[in-house]
Amino acid sequence: MAPSSSRPMRHHHLYLLLVVVSISVLLTSVPASAADELPELGGDGLHREILRDETVLRLKELGKISDGEGYLERTFLSPASIRATAVIVSWMKDAGLTTWVDQMGNIHGRFEPANSTKEALLMGSHMDTVIDAGMYDGALGIICAISALKVLKVTGKLQRLTRPVEVIAFSDEEGVRFQTTFLGSAAVAGTLPESILQVSDKSGTTVQDVLKMNSFEATAAAISEARYNPESVGSYVEIHMEQGPVLEALRYPLGVVKGIAGQTRLKVIVDGSQGHAGTVPMKLRRDPMVAAAELVVTLEHLCKEPNKLLNYDEECGCFTEESLAGLVCTVGELLTWPSASNVIPGQVNFTVDIRAMDDKVRETIVTSFSRLVLQRCDERLVECRVEHKHSAPATPSDPELTSQLKRAARSAVSAMPGRAATAVAAAAETPVLMSGAGHDAMAMAKLTKMGMVFVRCRGGLSHSPEESVMDDDVWAAGLALVNFIEQAAVSSELLLLPEAELDAAVAEL
After folding, report:
1. Per-residue pLDDT for 212 more than 50?
2. pTM of the prediction?
3. 46-69: buried (b, 16+ CB within 10 Å) or exposed (e) per residue?
4. Would 444 disulfide with which of 101, 236, 348, 456, CB 3.0-4.6 Å?
């Protein structure tokens, strides 16, 4: 038996051998051109060329792929969406990912470590937009995630992942075309109902029709294939622009999300008597336009001053100022028939969007407004009905993921040069925010635990061509994601192996 004093020396030699061989494997696994660039490409660990410069260029490129002339519009499986799919797939491949498009049009890019049995880390956001959109909403989360994985590829860390990582560009989150949100992420989460295939857009085209036109199978069985097994997924993380003014007011580039407000979408249909604008006396009119206008104002009063209009019972009399905070109500679309200047409309319908952090508050507002609709319409001798189009409960973020993302964000912001770094001194910690906007993370929370990082935007503007995120904030978001992935999925286990496993690893190398 060798003397015990020789064992530490043997470990030392094995350690040095493993380090040398690992460095050799790392360098040979990177293409010569990339290896030559390593000293310049993120030599300071910040990877500006990828996480800022390339990411911003790609955001601009994707922002030009539109169905509209002179403005950005990219809805579910539209021609522009199909063109964007090819571009996103090419970026995923550039990051070293295996790609595919599922039966709901979601784009997937995945790296699968050899022999890994661990749960996957999913990242992403949505590729669809509203009409006359900005270029950051949704796209920022997709491209930042791709860029983060490209950094790991260039630095040789992608091959050291101990769990699968995947970026998903969801086909529909905004719900513009079919007035129902989360078509893409709900399919992955396994919560998309079969009935969705028969939902139609304004032209009468159904979801099933659109899928078939784009060579998808368009069956309930095919859509179910997009569903992920919850046991195979460990977490979902999403980068998203804030779409609000808080981070800008705090002068801080990043924040983490502790939860997403619940949301209800309604459609109100008001039927009256269509007639000639010049011949029907005012007192004899059953005008749905005037009734609809009154209902819109009623909704505003209800949500601005809920304490004055809500009829509380004993159960919900406990509403506090805090529980009512964040309540917002919006009428975003109003349509009339036949929509002529010299005709009293026969029908008016409008959309209602109600959001609140407290689900009981939201449900009470919905109930109260529905009651007021029937009451006001009865007073004006018109017929009304309220259709429920979408409802989602408030969704809390996973506390552990939130803590990890806070650390990753603060580390990234602390490392940033210039103005971003000075903000750290002014803040005790990374801001924690609630989200009033819905996100794919809400749907994915039905599948796995979720966490989100918000990126500061100018003026809190979103769903507008005036959307703006500073290039350095894009950089900070990408760096935070790199930090998070390295903490969550990159292995340093080889250097900590027991002696027998170390010997085997060295022999295999």
Report:
1. yes
2. 0.77
3. bbbebbbebbbebbeebbebbbee
4. 236
